[in-house]
């Protein structure tokens, strides 16, 4: 039975601004490696690109990588004969013995029979792989690079017979040395690198599958993800990253509860068309990582007011009000960070600030607002789209009000003390006024926004007119936003071979399961490092504790179990509650158990091999004596035989003449 020692990376899909590149391992043995790779052109034009494969960061001389091959999947029309059958009734003779007469009686009955009706000749499109050329560009100890020439990728507008829009599928094959090889494999497309794994210092990742809606494909689109805490994450989510193959995506943390969940905005370079899917990745598991949330890079416009100079220096236009008299940034309240914008109009004054935007009717303008006095009605405070006079306001009422079409409208959402998220969302045909995620009002309007901002006015000097704002942001918006789904946790593995020493220890396998639910654990405080190979076929233990008994627990059938890095002077016995199953002394620092293992608890017992008692060597004197005795026998042989012959002759004469 084959022992599989090489573990490939799990299915991974990665994106770049030009291409989506997806890697799927399909062959996992000790020498042969094989990936299915799909490349999607995100351009609206057909493109011809140069593709190279490369290998680096290996624990062996990369010039020893052999038989690098690259295949393109094509449609091959094949003429086939399709046989069509029909069912007819035919007579059949049935014999039986008559119970009364004992005679054989034959009867005829009609039975169904399937016969050929006609043969249809038809051309069928079969998917086949066409081998591409290979030309070695570099081949030394540290790196091997192989050119596969030019390939043509269809436009993303084109949906082919095989793949999604703009996509072609390829197979990359190569062979490595059989002695525990590991390293990195990748593709270069027009010189840009694409790897199966973004950064090996992050130990865990989850695939995020985006599904497009009837709103159609989008570019550079901000989407809010609800991220559930995982034990490997930093408690404050500071190590969470969103990525494709080559690039980290911009992201901004809206809110979180440590060790529970986080709401994170991610700017995805591409959202697929209706019903189609596209995969990205969330990485985590790096205790040394610090937060890198970036609202400016994530949104179309963003201001968290974390500065102490005039807003006019940060892209704002001041329509009414004066810096340090009616507005400035302060540390009194802050939704996040340390500062917020304070607007405080004097009696019967107006303060109005807005940000010019690129004309668009598919924007969402959102801001965090701190309500200091829900009962106060003389201060008019709005999130406003100036050119359209669209307002979401705290104005004259203890509930939120909206304004559009030159008319004020009341909502049923009551004002309350503290921070609230206000938003005006436009999808191209409708406008939605939102308070803390709940719709307060809506109306139809397809005009473009050209500016959006904040407004506050006071009609009474007897009230505290201070209002606080934080994290003003503008993002793209469609009413039918794409959906997303997180897949199972994956663990970092080297793209050529399982990395069982860094960056983590005691990893079970690359998908989180071997077959169906399982667990792996050492007894006492022992540590094993384990890896699954071929997903649900076998289990390799790469490092063992020194104690007598360790345990493996899992569900699902294993065809074999292999232990490596062992002591050749020890005997390893596989056991369960029924007793010994299989026993081997380590050879070549490894043991292979080939018994099929059903779901159960198993133990490995480690004992010393019993050495045979050596036979004492004869002394030199004994050896000398043995040699002398042999020589004496040879010297006496011929005289003895001569005397024996004479005795026989004399005996014969005596017998004859004596008679």
Describe this entry's structure for a reader.
By secondary structure, the protein is mainly beta. It has 5 domains: 12-77 and 125-194, Immunoglobulin-like (Sandwich); 204-298, no CATH class; 301-476, Sandwich (Jelly Rolls); 505-608, Immunoglobulin-like (Sandwich); 626-659. Helices cover 7% and strands 52% of the residues. It contains 2 helices and 42 strands. Strands 18, 20, 21, 23, 28, 29, 30 and 32 form an 8-stranded antiparallel sheet that branches. It has a 7-stranded antiparallel sheet with strand order 19-22-31-24-25-26-27, with no helix packed on it. A hairpin with a 3-residue loop joins strand 1 (12-15) and strand 2. The longest helix has 39 residues, at 620-658. The protein is elongated and about 165 Å long.
Q: Which SSEs are present, and which pair or pack?
A:
Elements: E1 12-15, E2 19-28, E3 32-41, E4 47-56, E5 66-97, E6 104-131, E7 135-139, E8 143-153, E9 167-175, E10 184-189, E11 192-194, E12 204-211, E13 218-228, E14 241-243, E15 251-257, E16 261-271, E17 277-284, H1 295-298, E18 301-303, E19 317-320, E20 327-330, E21 340-343, E22 350-360, E23 363-371, E24 379-385, E25 390-394, E26 399-404, E27 407-414, E28 418-426, E29 430-435, E30 438-444, E31 449-458, E32 467-476, E33 483-491, E34 516-521, E35 529-533, E36 538-543, E37 549-555, E38 560-564, E39 570-576, E40 579-585, E41 590-593, E42 600-608, H2 620-658
Parallel strand pairs: 36-38
Antiparallel strand pairs: 1-2, 2-3, 3-9, 4-8, 4-10, 5-6, 5-9, 7-8, 10-11, 12-17, 12-33, 13-16, 14-17, 15-16, 18-32, 19-22, 20-21, 21-32, 22-31, 23-28, 23-32, 24-25, 24-31, 25-26, 26-27, 28-29, 29-30, 34-37, 35-36, 37-42, 38-41, 39-40, 39-42
